[in-house]
């Protein structure tokens, strides 16, 4: 059974589809603003951060799946001052939100043509 104790705070005309899209935007914005700037040195650090971000997304209400890929150039050096920081352009996120009968698949990724990291709805539907 579907339960949302916060539904009463949203305007009565907000549909499940609109709310699912809203929730997807919240999650993608969180990724950008919460995780950019994290220092990275080793591939295992990147792998761990991908899992942390996925779990952070899925911890939020109505998020049912998340996949995160981080593409960064890591320096292969012993210099303790050589590291990179996570930038939005390095993050590719796919997530799924289910709110009521509505399901949204949303993406955050670098679009070279736009020279921008675009958050967008890849698919939106309502289950029977």
From TrEMBL:
It is an enzyme of class 4 (lyase). Substrate binds at residue 23. Pfam families: DHNA. Residues 15-122 form the Dihydroneopterin aldolase MtpD C-terminal domain. Its EC number is 4.1.2.25. The keyword Secreted does not apply. The keyword Lyase applies. It catalyses: 7,8-dihydroneopterin = 6-hydroxymethyl-7,8-dihydropterin + glycolaldehyde. Keywords: Lyase. GO terms for molecular function: dihydroneopterin aldolase activity. HAMAP family: DHNA_arch. Belongs to the archaeal dihydroneopterin aldolase family. Homotetramer. Catalyzes the conversion of 7,8-dihydroneopterin (H2Neo) to 6-hydroxymethyl-7,8-dihydropterin (6-HMD). This is Dihydroneopterin aldolase. It comes from Thermosphaera aggregans.
């Amino acid at each position: 059974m579907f339960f949302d104790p916060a539904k009463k705070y949203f305007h009565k005309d907000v549909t499940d589809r609109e709310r699912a899209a809203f929730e997807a935007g919240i999650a993608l914005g969180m990724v950008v603003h919460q995780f950019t700037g994290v220092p990275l040195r080793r591939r295992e650090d990147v792998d761990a951060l991908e899992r942390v971000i996925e779990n952070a997304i899925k911890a939020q209400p109505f998020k049912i799946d998340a996949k995160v890929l981080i593409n960064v150039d890591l320096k292969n050096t012993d210099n303790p001052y050589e590291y990179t920081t996570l930038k939005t352009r390095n993050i590719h996120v796919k997530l799924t939100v289910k709110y009521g009968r509505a399901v949204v698949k949303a993406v955050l990724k670098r679009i070279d043509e736009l020279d921008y990291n675009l958050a967008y709805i890849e698919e939106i539907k309502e289950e029977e």
